[in-house]
Design goal:
Blueprint (H helix, E strand, L loop, with lengths): L9 E5 L4 H12 L3 E6 L2 H13 L4 E5 L5 H14 L5 E4 L14 H29 L3 E6 L12 H21 L4 E8 L13 H9 L13 H8 L11 E4 L9
Parallel strand pairs: 1-2, 1-4, 2-3, 4-5, 5-6, 6-7
């Protein structure tokens, strides 16, 4: 099982202060990687770092605005100085809204696209270029969504952003493969988290479960296996451009 060992690798988890991103920090750290917890919230970041350190995981908190290139560049430099060159990047920021389509204001449209798609574009430029420059390859893992296609109801802008993320993932997989950088995405099904809690009414949960062969919502740690697999150059050396669905069979259903 040593093909899943990430000892000696450095992972930057953007959105590591969130629910799903935080769980991925622990999963990658337990596999041996040093982990940079990246996000805006100092309070949540410090709490995450404390929890990781309690497990003996080498970690740092790095403040970042994922929608700002200069902030991402500074975060990359700080991580390199404190942990070493990043060769695993996880893009897990997320913002959502249930605003009805005809009521979506342009400000909300741009805010959600920026948080879910532009941030990934910028991070892949900043960290991907550094991976190429190091000449040692690397793994970029983007967090997509069950709504990336076909889209779910009530989340128009979010669905557009995640569909774009899938396309960007596959584009970059082709572009960066000659440099040994693999680019993949994980598309979770329905995992209760801060950004979707308001959307998960009893009625909506019942509809989701009726469309999910596993018959339940996901647990955040059920994403860890896919993340560690994609992060490992030995375990997934021939995997790039993949959209890995971890959704209890949701995407396999029609009626």
């Amino acid at each position: 099982m040593d093909i899943f060992d990430l000892t000696g690798h450095v992972a930057a988890v953007i959105g590591g202060t969130g629910v799903l991103g935080g769980v991925l920090c622990h999963g990658l750290g337990r596999a041996g990687a040093a982990v940079a917890v990246m996000g805006r919230s100092a309070e949540r970041g410090d709490a995450r770092v404390a929890a990781l350190e309690a497990e003996g995981i080498r970690t740092v908190r790095v403040s970042v605005d994922a929608t700002d290139r200069a902030s991402l560049e500074a975060a990359r430099r700080e991580t390199e100085e404190r942990l070493g060159p990043v060769d695993i990047l996880v893009n897990a920021p997320g913002v959502n809204s249930s605003t009805p389509f005809f009521e979506i204001e342009l400000e909300e449209w741009h805010r959600i696209l920026d948080a879910n798609l532009t941030s990934v574009f910028l991070a892949c430029q900043v960290f991907g270029k550094a991976m190429v420059g190091c000449g040692r390859g690397g793994s970029i893992i983007n967090i997509s969504s069950a709504s990336s296609g076909p889209p779910l109801s009530r989340v128009a802008t979010y669905s557009v952003a995640k569909a774009g993320l899938n396309n960007l993932t596959q584009y970059l997989a082709r572009e960066l493969a000659p440099n040994g950088v693999r680019v993949n995405a994980i598309a979770p099904g329905f995992f209760p988290a801060e950004q979707n809690r308001a959307l998960l009414s009893d009625e909506r949960v019942a509809a989701i479960l009726g469309h999910t062969p596993a018959g339940r919502l996901g647990e955040a740690d059920e994403l860890v296996g896919a993340a560690v697999w994609l992060a490992s150059a030995r375990a997934s050396s021939f995997v790039t451009g993949a959209i890995v669905r971890v959704d209890g069979g949701f995407s396999a259903m029609t009626i």
